[in-house]
Fold this sequence. Notes:
The complex is a heterodimer. In chain A, 29% of the residues are buried. Chain A folds into two domains: 2-97, no CATH class; 99-290, MetI-like fold (Orthogonal Bundle). Chain A has helices at 2-28, 34-44, 51-60, 67-79, 93-97, 99-128, 133-147, 150-165, 184-221, 224-231, 236-242, 244-248, 250-254, 256-266, 268-274, 279-288, 292-320, and strands at 85-86, 91-92, 330-331. Residues 328-332 of chain A have low confidence and may be disordered. Chain A contains 17 helices and three strands. By secondary structure, chain B is an alpha+beta fold. Chain B folds into two domains: 7-58; 63-163, no CATH class. Chain B has four helices and seven strands. In chain B, the strands form two sheets. A four-stranded antiparallel sheet of chain B has the order 1-2-3-4, with no helix packed on it. The longest helix of chain B is centred in the N-terminal third of the chain and has 24 residues, at 8-31. The two termini of chain B are 25 Å apart. Chain A binds chain B through residues 1-7, 9-11, 13, 79-82, 314, 318, 321-326, 328-332, and chain B through 10, 14, 17-18, 20-21, 24, 28, 31-35, 37-39, 42, 45, 48-49, 51-52, 55, 102-106, 108-116, 129-131, 135, 155-156, 159-160, 162-164.
Amino acid sequence: MLRYIAHRFLIMVPTLLAISFIVFVIIQLPPGDYLETYIAELQSRGEGVDIEKIQFLRESYGLDKPFLVQYAYWVAGMVQGDFGYSFEFNLPVSQVVGDRLWLTALVSVATIAFTWIVAFPIGVYSATHQYSWADHSLTFVGFLGLATPNFLLALVLLYFANVWFGTSIGGLMDEKFVGQPWSWAKLVSVLAHLWIPVIVIGTSGTAGMIRRLRANLLDELQKQYVVTGRAKGLPPFRLLVKYPLRMSLNPFIADIGSLLPEIISGAAIVSVVLSLPTTGPMLLEALRSQDMYLAGSFLMFMATLTVIGVLVSDLLLAILDPRIRLGGGAVK
Amino acid sequence: MSVHRYAARAIRGDLLRAIVGFMLTAVPCAATSESPVAAGIFGLLATLFFVFGVRSYIRRFALVLVTEDGVISCPLGERSPQIPGFRHASLAWRDIQAMRVRFFSTKRDRSEGWMELRLADGKDRLMIDSTIEGFESVVARAALAAERGGVVLDDATLANLGSLRIGAGAARI
């Protein structure tokens, strides 16, 4: 296992380097840079532009240096925990991001928990009671969940949350806690607001997971080893949990890698609609204003999450299903 | 009796990986002064690669002896010291209580990778991976012993034995 872990970690390094290079190319792709956008904005407002000041800013931000030099500085800084400087906020990126990263992580983890807790029993029930009324009803609800746009669900839930529960509209906490240090009351306020984004972001994922779990489990339930198990008198629940359910979980474990970044990037529009203080809206704004280091840091954050997710899923698969694929295997 | 050693080529590959990994993580760890979190992460990874490198280096001396009576693993060759982790592990075929064959893939489609054989009796256990010369013959002998001893093999082990064309009782499929 040590050899496997070392292999997998070593693969992560060139992967992340390649991603960082692509991210840097992408954030440099739009013509001009932040300062040119800034000049255009000043001119559109009819304000004068101090050329010397712009030149000074260009030199101090390193925007006058060649592309590869800028990239090398950026990567070397990130490795040391320095993600660069946000031009728009005039602050280091780490300070700009602040609580947003933790709140994003909280929303994402709660969404994943919601998705699995809801999807798992429903998917299993649907598969084991195929074509029953309950299966048809749950399938219908699942399709509704898949078909409903998240932002629309967000608007509907915001309305009902306010009318029925008196929860303030938008945000992830009451106004009075914004910018305040963490306290018990602030945490309670965050938890009281959390359920709306979790349901909104998690609904389509839950519906999708129900469909996939049902399909995977139905495939497994029709295999001969299940028939053999039944014929040998294995109790139905034990038979289900020990064999077909375990096998049908492999695709979910393999999907862990894409789950986190999907939730974070997929929640960007919902975050704008719900005014959530998460990373999504800030990433959109950073991309729009060409705040390259801020945008680049967010993109690297998501890429790192993907790579870590893939690592976790590979390690879990190595533990849970350490079988060779017949027909394609080559043992070194 | 047959004697099995780890292939020099595989050891060289692992050593190279360990050195590259260690350099890529230890240098940033030493250079990071601003972020203790980053330093901690790189430090942990550097430690992992260091341990992996030491283990890979030690494998140059490792021997596995397969006899009619059992299997003996000598991590540092025939003169392995009697310290935990480095002492001889000796298992008699008739005492085998657990056998597992695991496959670790380096690709998502599981088209490449290596296998790992784990054996245990009441007091000793050993692990051999497929980079050792004659791995299949060791596995076949262990499978035969497992069947004679009535050892229950899990699904993954049976599937992996099948891919090596070894039946649970070492009968070729």
